Amino acid sequence: QVQLVESGGGLVQAGGSLRLSCAASGRTFSNYAMAWFRQAPGKERELVTAINWSGSRTYGADSVKGRFTISRDNSKNTVYLQMNSLKPGDTAVYYCAAAVPPIDAYYTRSEWYTYWGQGTQVTVSS
User: Fold this and answer.
1) DSSP readout, 107-119?
2) Distance (Å, whole) CA 67 – CA 32
3) Residue 71 bridge partners (DSSP)
4) Would you say 55 and 33 are in contact if contact means Cβ atoms under 8 Å apart?
5) 9-14 contacts, C-beta under 8 A, 24 or more apart
6) Average pLDDT value over all residues in the chain
7) Which of 34, 65, 74, 81 could pair covalently with 20 via S-S, beta carbons 3.0-4.6 A apart?
8) In whole angstroms, how large is the CA radius of gyration of the chain?
């Protein structure tokens, strides 16, 4: 079994920054593709960004390109989401997710991610 624990959420003013962390345990972290999803009230969960197990490839949604960066430290079993230039529209619960693909790639569909964290709230005030 894999456990994912997010941290780093909170309240920030528009234009500010936050860094989310997701600590993984239970299996070999370097075999996981990782992703961050978010869900705002009344909206569907959406993919924010993803990274393959080696960290050599990343994906970012158009809405966050140039502002959000995903990274990972396999020695610490942790994936990060650096969020800069935050906007009120970024307000959501952010979820960390993990998958074990057969090759060094990431998925862009939530149904392919097997393990999920409990979520951390990010609120951006205007």
Assistant:
1) --SGGG--EE---
2) 24
3) 80
4) no
5) 9/94, 9/120, 9/121, 9/122, 10/121, 10/122, 10/123, 11/123, 11/124, 11/125, 12/86, 12/122, 12/123, 12/124, 12/125, 13/124, 13/125, 14/86, 14/87, 14/88, 14/124, 14/125, 14/126
6) 96
7) 81
8) 13
pLDDT of residue 81: 98
pLDDT digits (tens, 9 = 90+) for 26-81: 778 889 999 999 999 999 999 999 999 999 999 999 999 999 999 999 999 999 99
**Burial (0-12, 13-18, 19+ Cβ within 10 Å), 105:** middle
